[in-house]
């Protein structure tokens, strides 16, 4: 499979998943805090840990699987650029505490989520 096509397919599905989850989180929790983006980033961090552990370390699958699932799907599903913009918007709107909480929680939770994902991947291998 062409690597670019694999990334495009995975990216399209990942972007639709992100859109759906962020929309649901906004309906449930409101627009006062970027819960949807944070949820997607943590879930994507767990997922990329699992995928890395399975695809790269244990199963050593063909490179197109890494392209479609890790680069494409997870790359489009997680939203670090949105995280940066939302953090800046919180700062600029005078919500410094919310911005700092969001940044610290996102970084800590996503690092922990990748570690959990790698551990889960090892359990599944």
Automatic annotation (TrEMBL):
<dbReference type="GO" id="GO:0140114">
    <property type="term" value="P:cellular detoxification of fluoride"/>
</dbReference>
<feature type="binding site">
    <location>
        <position position="78"/>
    </location>
    <ligand>
        <name>Na(+)</name>
    </ligand>
</feature>
<dbReference type="GO" id="GO:0005886">
    <property type="term" value="C:plasma membrane"/>
</dbReference>
<keyword id="KW-0812">Transmembrane</keyword>
<keyword id="KW-0997">Cell inner membrane</keyword>
<keyword id="KW-0407">Ion channel</keyword>
<keyword id="KW-0915">Sodium</keyword>
<keyword id="KW-0813">Transport</keyword>
<keyword id="KW-0472">Membrane</keyword>
<keyword id="KW-0479">Metal-binding</keyword>
<feature type="transmembrane region" description="Helical">
    <location>
        <begin position="33"/>
        <end position="55"/>
    </location>
</feature>
<keyword id="KW-1133">Transmembrane helix</keyword>
<keyword id="KW-0406">Ion transport</keyword>
<dbReference type="Pfam" id="PF02537">
    <property type="entry name" value="CRCB"/>
</dbReference>
<protein>
    <recommendedName>
        <fullName>Fluoride-specific ion channel FluC</fullName>
    </recommendedName>
</protein>
<feature type="transmembrane region" description="Helical">
    <location>
        <begin position="67"/>
        <end position="85"/>
    </location>
</feature>
<comment type="function">
    <text>Fluoride-specific ion channel. Important for reducing fluoride concentration in the cell, thus reducing its toxicity.</text>
</comment>
<feature type="binding site">
    <location>
        <position position="75"/>
    </location>
    <ligand>
        <name>Na(+)</name>
    </ligand>
</feature>
<comment type="similarity">
    <text>Belongs to the fluoride channel Fluc/FEX (TC 1.A.43) family.</text>
</comment>
<keyword id="KW-1003">Cell membrane</keyword>
<dbReference type="InterPro" id="IPR003691">
    <property type="entry name" value="FluC"/>
</dbReference>
<dbReference type="GO" id="GO:0046872">
    <property type="term" value="F:metal ion binding"/>
</dbReference>
<dbReference type="GO" id="GO:0062054">
    <property type="term" value="F:fluoride channel activity"/>
</dbReference>
<feature type="transmembrane region" description="Helical">
    <location>
        <begin position="97"/>
        <end position="120"/>
    </location>
</feature>
């Amino acid at each position: 499979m062409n690597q670019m096509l694999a990334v495009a397919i995975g990216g399209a599905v990942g972007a639709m998943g992100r859109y759906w989850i962020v929309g649901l989180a906004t309906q449930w929790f409101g627009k006062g805090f970027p819960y949807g983006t944070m949820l997607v980033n943590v879930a994507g961090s767990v997922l990329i840990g699992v995928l890395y552990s399975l695809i790269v370390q244990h199963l050593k699958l063909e490179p197109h699987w890494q392209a479609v699932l890790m680069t494409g799907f997870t790359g489009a599903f997680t939203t670090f650029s949105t995280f940066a913009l939302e953090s800046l918007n919180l700062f600029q709107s005078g919500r410094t505490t919310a911005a700092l909480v969001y940044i610290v929680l996102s970084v800590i939770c996503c690092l922990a989520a990748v570690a959990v994902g790698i551990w889960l991947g090892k359990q599944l291998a």
